[in-house]
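Exercise 7. Predict the structure of CRT (Chloroquine-resistance transporter)-like transporter 2 from Rhynchospora pubera.
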Amino acid sequence: MARRGIGAAVGATVLLAVTNRVLYKLALVPMKGFPFFLAQVTTFGYVAVYFSILFLRYRAGIVTKEMLLLPKVYFVVIGVLEALGVAAGMSAGAMLPGPAIPILSQSFLVWQIIFSMLFLKKSYSLNQLCGCFLVISGVIVAITSGSDEGRFLSNVEFIWPMLMIASSAFQAGASILKEFIFIDGERRLKGKRPDIFVVNSFGSGFQALFVFLLLPFLSNLRGIRFGDLPAYLNDGASCFLNAGDDQVECDGAPFLPLLFITANMVFNISMLNLVKMSSALVASLTSTLAVPISIYVLSLPLPYIPHGSRLSPSFVFGVSFCYSD
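Solution. The predicted structure, encoded as tokens:
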């Protein structure tokens, strides 16, 4: 029964992961001039939503006082790691060619295996390790299919790929720490695992705090001077609400951005639920499996993106790698 429940959660998470990626692309159609604004809305908006849900679950008796009294130091570390992951990822992303970013991000799985072995004392069979390798290899082949650029990192300084890999390490560390909170919380709560909204709310809260402290640095990475940030946010809000003077440029707002934010929130909840039910590694593999499917869906003609793209045979080969284990 437990295996069936995990299988259903995996299927739902893959579907939500694909939906999340596709809707993000669609949300950027009206918000193409304000991706940094959209990122901040999601970061800080989730805090309000998660804590509101947490409060309702506490009033309903689902969340107990003991859950709320779990050590906050772990959540602080999660916030620091995720904020550093954002900062490092944005720094490297500004200097790396597009195809390199998702490829280097696959080091996330490798870091998860390393951290879970070091801090959770987990062991993996050769079959499991080979399965991870196949998934990573398949995604890399699928993403790079059809590229004739050759060595697309040949003109990039060594520091930038390393910084993107470090970004994955920070995020992997945060995911393993969330798994540890569930395991440690089960011991502290005498057999009952913490509610996912306790972990989501406090983790997101501290992430938002440290992102806020890094806001001058992060905005500068996006080419927005800190002094110009208020005007940028005001213009972004006008476009988000489709209330600006040039409504043609923001066609699709606020429907598409709100649809993405809702889907992204449900996806994050589903991912954390999968971590609670199984492990952080299973959740990450599930999300990774959605990458080739997302690329295929995004190659089709879609509303607001009517021109599709043709996929090469090597893409299909890469997808077969992903699902061969």
